[in-house]
Amino acid sequence: MPAKRPPPLADDTRWTAVLARDAGADGRFFYSVRTTGVYCRPSCGARLPLRENVAFHATAAEAEAAGFRPCRRCKPDEPSRAERQAQMVAHACRAIEAADEAPDLATLAADAGVSPYHFHRVFKAVTGVTPKAYADAQRAQRVRQALPQAESVTAALYDAGFNSNARFYARTPQVLGMTPSAYRAGGVDATIRFAIAQCSLGAILVAATEQGVCAITLGDDPEALLHDLQQRFSRAQLVGAEPGFERLVAQVVGMVESPDTGQALPLDIRGTAFQQRVWQALRDIPAGSTASYAQIAERLGAPKAVRAVAAACAANPLAVAIPCHRVVRSDGGLSGYRWGVERKRVLLQREAAQEESS
Asked: Catalytic residue at 324?
């Protein structure tokens, strides 16, 4: 199924993009110049034409059908720089994923035909992580997939590309959240305490390991929340209604009502290197404030990784504690929220009201 094109821009908006040489508008339209007979991308660095000499076109083919030839400077009939960079990084990602041992930076750069410095900078800008971090995440994913079926933990580690047990075990808490043997057994040796309560947003489930809170989920059906926890930790020892755990649950519920209480909560955060960077950026957004997905990507030094930021927000397992509800669209509108857009709206309204009264 072909990708759905974004809605066309108004001519005034298009002209503003041309004046700003906005690379973000490349591919959304092209403009032609009557006096030169050429058509360009919005980001073209050529001298700006007069507005009365400019016409806009949805595609390069449309501009050529109108009798214009492609600009020799921005080459609008060829893949854009951003597209070329995305293709280069995608090719490198596939190479990393397919390799038994992660290729080093020099090898990846040579394969792409660029310098190691340039490759490293572009890779991080597109994906949000360095090539090494991406390779580490891929090996960790291989371990998670291999452990349940492997003959031994050591076999799984070496099959995933770790050259030594010590190197992997040093990163075990971030990769698995528990010992490899426990993960291999479906979490059978892990003890996870949990409780389900009611708050102003409906049912809330709180679960914690010895390291800290590993799940905060919201919903209308308490049974569905418990089923989700059981699926995530299929063979862990789940302990419910344990004496003393109510204090932690009350602290989490208090976060729903008063977001400023969340910073002292101990968290057991598990995710890829990029997800953890996004989640930390979300925790840095003050209560009562919002940020767009694009702004988060910019703060991470990866302005092109907007979709990856959105995916990390969607994968957040800790509602409110990692405040993905504070991330909005660039126009300020509310986009999808794992626990329902209406809950997102209520949380933001509550935080804004608290800021006004403080």
From this structure: yes
